[in-house]
Design brief:
Blueprint: H1 2-22, E1 28-29, E2 38-40, E3 43-46, E4 51-53, E5 59-60, H2 75-78, H3 82-85, H4 90-119, H5 126-154, H6 163-174, H7 186-192
Antiparallel strand pairs: 1-5, 2-3, 3-4
Keywords: Plasmid
């Protein structure tokens, strides 16, 4: 019986919040379930998801999270350690993979030039060849890291990342999505009034 009362109280609280939303009052909501959240010392708590949320995660009025980055990542972002890369959005990782693959390709091409020069007797390029090998290994491993994070998220490693691939992904992410608002039963709405 206690669970029923808790459910009814929770439903009543959410219906009350829904009524506030309809009246134009902004309501802080969970980005995952759309429920109202409670403010707890500079953080928020979602009772339905049973989790704490940072301020930047909380949405308003049942809106869903915006998954697009504010700015394009740079090659410097690709140099971040793996735990930091794991925090980036999928679109950011796609951009970084494109940049890292380009860096790896450029490094490989430079190394190839040094190797060809050394084959023709230019031994002074030995240090440069060793340096470019280390750089090539670094960027290859960075590509592996980013590819594996993407594989965990989207289920595959993109073979080629071009402008069309990224634009297609962005268009799918921008498609209209329904807000996370649940209409209460008519009896509940009448009781709230």
């Amino acid at each position: 019986m206690k669970n029923v009362v808790t459910y009814n109280n929770r439903c009543y609280n959410n219906c009350s919040k829904l009524q506030q939303y309809r009246e134009g009052v902004s309501m802080k909501t969970c980005p995952y379930c759309g429920s109202g959240v409670q403010n707890h010392q500079h953080r928020y708590y979602c009772g339905f998801c049973k989790m704490k949320l940072d301020r930047n995660e909380v949405q308003e009025n049942g809106k869903r999270k915006n998954l697009l980055p504010q700015q394009h990542p740079t090659i410097e972002d690709a140099k971040k350690p793996t735990p930091e890369l794991m925090k980036l959005s999928t679109v950011e990782l796609l951009y970084l993979l494109k940049l890292a693959r380009k860096e790896r390709s450029d490094t490989y091409n430079n190394r190839y030039i040094f190797i060809q020069a050394m084959k023709q007797g230019a031994k002074e390029f030995s240090d440069a060849e060793q340096y470019t090998y280390k750089e090539y290994e670094y960027w290859t491993r960075k590509c592996f890291v980013i590819e594996n994070i993407l594989r965990e998220r989207i289920g595959f490693i993109p073979k080629k990342i071009n402008k069309e691939f990224i634009q297609n992904m962005i268009q799918r992410m921008q498609q209209p999505v329904k807000d996370m608002n649940i209409q209460p039963p008519k009896k509940e709405v009448e009781r709230v009034k």
